[in-house]
Amino acid sequence: GMPTHFAKCLTDAGFNLLSIANNHVGDFGEAGRKSTIETLKKNGIHYAGLAGYCPTTTFTIKGVKYGFCAFAPNTGTVSIKDIPAAQAIVRNLAKECDIVIVSFHGGAEGSKYQHVTRNTETFLGENRGNVHDFAHKMIDAGADILLGHGPHVTRAIEVYKDRFIAYSMGNFCTYDRVNSRGVNGRAPMFKIFTDMQRKFLKGELFSTNQIKYQPVKIDSQNRVLKVVQDLTKADFPEMNSVINISNEGIITLKK
After folding, report:
1. Can you tell me the distance from the alpha carbon of 89 to that of 27, in angstroms, rounded to the nearest whole number?
2. Handedness of CA 187, 192, 198, 199 (dihedral sign)
3. Which of 184 and 77 is assigned the larger pLDDT?
4. The sheet that has 163-166: what strands, in order across it?
5. Are 136 and 157 in contact (CB under 8 A)?
6. CA 82, CA 87: separation in Å to the nearest integer?
7. CA distances from 8 to 2, 25, 43, 101, 136 (A)
8. pLDDT for 57 beyond 80
9. What are the angstrom distances between the C-alpha of 97 and each of 87, 165, 168?
């Protein structure tokens, strides 16, 4: 939890869209969920991810209509484990929107879990979903950009059916009680370009680094870029013939 007046920090930093599907959204019960929604609404930030409250949102910027939905394996969130229900949500958004963005909080946590296994992941006895199967099936249903998080470390990227997937974007800006040492403190920011047919055109990866109790900084050593290059080679060898991730962080299609 954090004080509601901190929401202004989000708008000052340029955030206009947030997933609230995660394992902490219920920490303060019903009152906390309602306060979160009211605070984001008041600050003009779009949000989605709570079952029954806000499974989806749509908004228009410069004539482009965006649809957004968010999933997690946790109580009260829209489930990452119910694939048919998730596909139905994405299909409905794809019918009415120009671009559909899907956020997912899934996979095991920590530096031992940087790899995408393509299997169901369990952590502390909890089913955290099969992020590979989920991502592909969301794209099959009409999703255009998939943004993953939850493992607290960065994972590989993939382009499937001309759609971009980031399997985990690590820890971007955390405070206490989250390990940000070493690889846990390095995270990518992505800038994604698509064409008018919703297909991935190119991307840019910006490396960030955080040290506990200090502001997030752009990492001049680009360390997380190397992590993404290596993990993508290891976990998705088929991507070698599909995308190129340059040492400047430019992601381009090879074909």
Report:
1. 26
2. negative
3. 77
4. 56-61, 64-71, 99-105, 145-149, 163-166, 157-160
5. no
6. 9
7. 12, 19, 7, 24, 35
8. yes
9. 15, 19, 25
The 10 Å CB-count burial string (b at 16+, else e) for 81-117 is bebeebbebbebbbeebebbbbbbbbbbbeeebbbbe
CA 152 centroid distance within chain:
11
Backbone angles phi, psi at 47, to 5 degrees: -155, 160
At 79, list the tokens: 């489930």
Q: Do 150 and 107 contact (CB within 8 A), yes or no?
A: yes
φ/ψ of residue 48, rounded to 5 = -165, 165
Distance CA 89, CA 61 (A): 21
- Summarize pLDDT for 140-183 with one digit per residue, the tens: 999 999 999 999 999 999 999 999 999 999 887 776 666 666 67
For the cut 90, the answer to whether the pLDDT of residue 97 exceeds it is yes
CB atoms within 10 A of CB 4: 14
pTM above 0.90, yes or no: yes
Closest Cα to residue 10, out of 31, 36, 49? 36
CA distance 18 to 9: 13
